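ENTRY TYPE: paired fold submission
RECORD: A
CONTENT: sequence, then structure tokens
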Amino acid sequence: MTESFTPPPAAGCRDTPVLKERGQREVFCGLTGIIWLHRKMQDAFFLVVGSRTCAHLLQSAAGVMIFAEPRFGTAILEEGDLAGLADAQEELEREVERLLDRRPDIRQLFLVGSCPSEVIKLDLSRAAERLTQRHAPRVRVLNYSGSGIETTFTEGEDACLASMVPVLPETDRRQLMLVGALPDVVEDQALDLLEKLGVGPVTVLPAARASDQVAVGPNTVVALTQPFLGETLSALERRGARHLAAPFPFGEEGTTAWLRAVAQEFGVSEERLEEVTAAPRARARRAVAQAAETLNRRSLFFFPDSQLEIPLARFLTRECGMEAVEVGAPYINKQVVAPDLDLLAEGPVISEGQDVDLQLDRCRAARPDLTVCGLGLANPLEAEGLTTKWAIELVFTPVHFYEQAGDLAGLFSRPIRRHDLLKLEAAE
């Protein structure tokens, strides 16, 4: 296993002082997580309690009419509801009754607040309790906030999964729990690798259906697949589960380190790990190497968006040869990302939160070869001659584990390659 081994840096970024900024932010709100969560949980329905603005957001994010997709919708609050002039609780419960009568296939109903309760004049947690009592055991009703005031882009998934943890059954069996919504093809690859290693039993949160046997207890070992699930992890730890710290499975190195942590926890030998991973590791190295030809020695600047930034910076610097100037994340939970920080060589600014004007000033001064940012910043920066990558694609595209390593590197190499070609054409 030494042919592609890159030693850890002499000094990582775990203890690097973090530049903490609190100002104007440029991120999507947590409601957008519904777009991938409703595809993952096959018998769930997400009812957003909010304004017409929220309905338009989901319509735009999904690229369809709001009721064209069968498992999410919006209960629109009118001016009278927002002013507290109507009995919105009764109206909401009537809407839920009509929804469940019309859709008997629903087994999990999420009431998703688009604003804090003091704004929408509704206590959705109490509404969920009453509706659960009325419709149990056929339907489980939960609630969480996707408010852009309270959450950023990927925190919608974190809030959703955290709301599920208190109602999971108790178990004493020793098990591995994978936590994080992955595309089905990626999840299948992960489960196949774990099966070949002999690790089991393995459960997944979120499960595809409410009837799937997902339980938690003191012998549950949690392996996160997404770095933005800090609240979910805390909720699982309160139920007695134990976190398995590891780099995240992005690229060949990250995937191998993640699998090695699981293998060591469950007594799998290094020889067995090598036997199972040798072929997919080689494929991943070859695929990444093609993109790395374009990325090597290019500078990189991350605006905070998805909380994927630190693991991705580790992947891009160590496996693709990029040089990170700044790595910004909306929140940094060192319990979760410390293993990736250890592998990220000292040098870049590590920033948490955002004051967008100050960060734009630093980005313009650095003139990086590639800037990873949200949609709202990409076009203005492109107009200034900077090459950008939309951060949102990193959440919607399969990027985890060995077979997606080349695709992940390609997401970053294509904008640079396009910029180089346009520059060459202009010179001619």
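RECORD: B
CONTENT: sequence, then structure tokens
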Amino acid sequence: MTHAQPTAAAAAAHPVTDRTREALAVSLRGCDELIPEADWLKKLARSEANGVPLRIKLGLDPTAPDLHLGHTVVLNKMRALQNLGHQVIFLVGDFTSMIGDPSGRNTTRPPLTREQIEANAKTYYAQASLVLDPEKTEIRYNSEWSDPLGARGMIQLAAKYTVARMMERNDFHDRFHAGTSISVHEFLYPLMQGYDSVALKSDLELGGTDQKFNLLMGRHLQQEYGQEPQCILTMPLLEGLDGIEKMSKSKNNYIGITEDPATMFAKVLSISDVLMWRWYTLLSFRAEAEIAALKAEVEAGANPKHAKVALAREIVTRFHNAAAADAAEADFNNRAKGGIPDDIPEVTLAGAPLGLGALLKAAGLVPSSSEAMRMVEQGGVRIDGAVVSDKGLKIEAGTVVVQVGKRKFARVTLTA
């Protein structure tokens, strides 16, 4: 689709101004798909002409209590659209969480209990507000309209979509042909997510690429209920620290948005120079022209570390503050020189002389004694700055600074 076509189509109803084109460019930055782009341009032109903000929806099921940078890719897009003056709606899927989202799964996802949902939801919005402007964000819970539907309403809703079309969904199709069970309640998930768009009268719904089927369901159901269908905007899944797999806590390749500034800064500095530019596009609020200039400098011979430091500082500042970014950078430079951070945990242990593995585990530096031995084998354990190679070492009474890897430190006082 060319950009000239939607411009001409939109002009018939409302003029497409430079500001409208800029809003379209903001919408398209880093996105995977904008469907249909022509309709979104019409909505933007109408909003510009009549001064009525568009309603932009993002739904998140509180399946875990903490967000990482991968979750913020869509939140960043929401904030960018919020900055243009549109109304963003942060929808907590407290009802849909009890069904369990089957997206991208080859087995039925176990539903959460009401207690788990409520506990997770409490922290979700607080963390999302580190990206969104909380003063201009409408927060809703889909139990508001889903609970009152009742059995009659649910059956009427289910009548608006066919089993044949539901089976076009990739994960259902693959599971069916593999002979893997699909529970009937899983068909209800995309229907309920789509009904959220009807209840909220959304103009645009955001989500990851794995949510495309559910987002399209919203368009379909809005038409069924006589509403103007929403447009959908999918954002790519952010690669984690390894640059290969999508960011995930289970793969330990993530940066949590509530992690301490020094850890956050150091993790950003650990990514590859290639991945850095992908992160700039999806995570930075810098103008694209500014990012292009940075990239040109690096291609002309500038040290890529300077661009990476700038990205790390921006991310730490967003989730903490500028002073924290200064301190994190100083801490990183100090560690790079072999120095010991000023602020490290103080631990007091008894039982000297204590075996090295037991000490590292008790100090919270490793999850197990076997992991401690593995770190020793790799040369990743230091005591008072000296690398330890003896796995059988016993530590005598006294105070030592213990380091595991590049970022874990503890000042351990060991007593008899």
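NOTES ON RECORD B: Residues 184-200 form the longest helix (17 residues). The radius of gyration is 25 Å.
STATUS: closed
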